[in-house]
Write a sequence for this structure.
């Protein structure tokens, strides 16, 4: 079946190249694209942006257990600003997001360069590197909770090899616990960055690299000065997707640290959940969701804008 | 042959290796060592699932007598099968629904584009960048009022909404890559739009559709924000089950590992069998 198609095609193209479709139902044809597109667009835009608007309205009210429409202006926002736990959560998201994105890009690009050296069984390696990405953040949390547990995991393992003074108990240390989230998340997503970069590397014209080699440039120099600049669009998509993962990493916190010790590893998403649902503070929770949204937009829009603009020029 | 060509390409040996063979052997070993490090946590969890509770918290060792005790207990005490069934129903149900809505949309965007197609697509994708907490309260309130809380239908609806932009976008890129002449030829033979889609477009882009579907299944299977917030027991999928398992009984590592292993096994096996599709899907179609 498949083989017969191109055959038919070659004989039909010369005749059909200029001929446009000439069905009588032109009116329907014109509307059809919009008609079939409508559900997807309506669902994505209406539900997401519409519901955000609703959340915004709720954030202006004194809603507690049930939504009420007793407006209190920006009262919930000033309550939020006075809440220390909120500041911890926002700072955590900044630390986590920046470290997560930067380390993933670094490790991912190194792994991609490694696999780009035409080593054997590249396909199998690529699948294994990518495996963590196919796991749920919940499972990642469970696995790392165990590995990071001082009595059971890495610390115990290294100590049993004879290094008695080895310490790795970040997960129980309020100052360091946030970095355990970074470790687990980097483990999960760097293989994904690797796969993206590898695809990008394969798309680069070999002759550019050959030319640089002839000029006597060293391998690290070639990658840094010649190859990486070509990968700018790939870096852009990687950053966007990583940022998206960082923003929605609610489940990782739930499974790995539960926000603890205390509330040292709270993120805005877990803060919001705790207030809107377990503490019956829908108004305050909504306000925190809106602030988080504002923060995300404030960071992403300039980046999106500058990238898209420079791409048009260059 | 390889020695010769690489010598002519690079007059000075790039990284100082005596022979390309040695370099390649070193890099292969390095590659597999990294793979070992990356896979170790998963491997260790699978191993722990086959231990008894006391062996799981004893000194870490590779030598122990494997037992299925933990697996039996997980099934008996909490009914693993019910949660697994919820996961299957929700992941495949939402994927089916998302493909059903997305295929016509992607078709329209790829083959009948207008000036605003690109913009529409960008707007749809932009919704993925917004934090889900922003829409949680309204969805929760609506679901509560119409009785969709803790139902599979409710989760299927939410997951479909969640994955739709990505599914549309991926299908769009796959459809766009298809040579237009083939569809033209079909039209010349008098195929209707529906026939064109059913008998030409879908069979020819099947690998792309499979990658997209696999991604959607994986994303739904792994999703936890919505499943934790919108279900309690009846419709709870595996992610919610494991999360509930880990908090009050956090110390039962063997059972927790057994439950987690059962939750990821389908994905690991499915992923290994369909490596190409999985890589392509998980990278959102970037890897061809």
């Amino acid at each position: 079946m498949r083989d017969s198609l191109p055959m038919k095609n070659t004989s039909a193209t010369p005749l059909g190249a200029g001929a446009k479709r000439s069905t009588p139902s032109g009116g329907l044809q014109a509307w059809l694209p919009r008609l079939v597109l409508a559900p997807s667009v309506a669902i994505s835009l209406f539900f997401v942006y519409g519901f955000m608007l609703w959340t915004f309205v709720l954030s202006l009210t004194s809603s507690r257990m049930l939504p009420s429409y007793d407006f209190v202006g920006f009262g919930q926002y000033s309550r939020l600003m006075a809440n220390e736990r909120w500041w911890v959560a926002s700072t955590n998201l900044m630390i986590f997001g920046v470290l997560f994105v930067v380390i993933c890009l670094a490790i991912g690009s190194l792994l991609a360069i490694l696999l780009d050296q035409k080593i054997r069984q590249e396909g199998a390696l690529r699948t294994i590197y990518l495996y963590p990405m196919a796991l749920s953040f919940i499972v990642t949390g469970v696995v790392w909770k165990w590995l990071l547990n001082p009595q059971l995991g890495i610390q115990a393992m290294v100590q049993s090899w004879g290094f008695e003074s080895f310490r790795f108990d970040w997960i129980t240390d309020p100052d360091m616990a946030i970095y355990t989230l970074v470790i687990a998340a980097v483990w999960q997503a760097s293989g994904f960055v690797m796969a993206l970069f590898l695809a990008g590397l394969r798309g680069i014209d070999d002759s550019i690299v050959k030319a640089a080699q002839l000029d006597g440039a060293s391998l690290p120099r070639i990658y840094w000065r010649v190859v990486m600049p070509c990968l700018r669009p790939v870096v852009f998509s990687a950053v966007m997707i990583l940022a998206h993962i960082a923003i929605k990493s609610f489940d990782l916190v739930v499974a790995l640290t539960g926000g603890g010790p205390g509330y040292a590893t709270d993120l805005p998403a877990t803060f919001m959940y705790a207030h809107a649902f377990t503490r019956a503070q829908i108004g305050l929770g909504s306000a925190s969701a809106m602030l988080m949204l504002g923060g995300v937009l404030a960071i992403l829009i300039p980046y999106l804008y500058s990238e898209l603009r420079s791409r048009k020029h260059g | 042959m390889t020695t010769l060509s690489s010598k002519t390409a690079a007059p000075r040996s790039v990284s100082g290796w005596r022979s390309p063979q040695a370099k390649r052997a070193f890099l292969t070993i390095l590659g597999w060592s990294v793979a070992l490090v990356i896979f170790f946590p998963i491997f260790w969890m699978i191993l722990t699932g086959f231990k008894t509770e006391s062996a799981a918290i004893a000194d870490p060792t590779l030598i122990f007598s494997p037992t299925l005790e933990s697996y039996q207990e997980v099934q008996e005490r909490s009914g693993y099968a019910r949660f697994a069934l919820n996961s299957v129903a929700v992941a495949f149900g939402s994927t089916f629904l998302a493909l059903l809505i997305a295929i016509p949309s992607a078709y329209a965007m790829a083959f009948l584009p207008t000036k605003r197609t690109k913009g529409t697509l960008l707007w749809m994708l932009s919704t993925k960048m917004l934090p889900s907490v922003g829409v949680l309260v309204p969805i929760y309130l609506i679901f509560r009022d119409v009785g969709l809380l803790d139902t599979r239908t409710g989760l299927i609806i939410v997951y479909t909404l969640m994955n739709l932009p990505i599914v549309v976008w991926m299908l769009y890129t796959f459809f766009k890559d298809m040579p237009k002449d083939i569809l033209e030829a079909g039209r010349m033979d008098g195929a209707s739009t529906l026939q064109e889609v059913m008998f030409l477009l879908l069979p020819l882009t099947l690998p792309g559709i499979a990658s997209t579907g696999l991604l959607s299944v994986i994303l739904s299977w792994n999703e936890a924000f919505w499943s934790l917030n919108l279900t309690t027991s009846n419709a709870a999928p595996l992610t919610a089950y494991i999360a509930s398992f880990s908090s009050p009984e956090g110390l039962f590592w063997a059972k927790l590992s057994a439950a987690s292993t059962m939750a990821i096994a389908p994905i690991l096996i499915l992923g290994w069998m369909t490596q190409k599709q999985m890589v392509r899907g998980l990278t959102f179609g970037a890897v061809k």
Residues 1-14 of chain B have pLDDT under 50 and may be disordered. Residues 80-111 of chain B form the longest helix (32 residues).
